[in-house]
Amino acid sequence: MTLRALTQMNRILVGHRQDNDVNRSFNIETEINNYRNQLRSQNINDVNDHKYTYAIGTMYMDIIQECEKLGDYVVNVVEARMGVRQQDA
Asked: pLDDT value at position 17?
């Protein structure tokens, strides 16, 4: 998903403003957020079921959180390029 977000951002950066749909970037970022939430819930269950340690679960969620931040940064770039703001849900 982060690769899709970066690819879409690059399209917006090199293309003409009127030829791009910012909603694609916003939708990808929403998908990233939803997936992060799913992974967080699954991680909590897996740690509670002793599938791995709390420390491993924390490192795993750190990686997931960094991917989510990348999605946020992509949206910031897209918003700046297109001169629009994402509507908060």
From this structure: 75
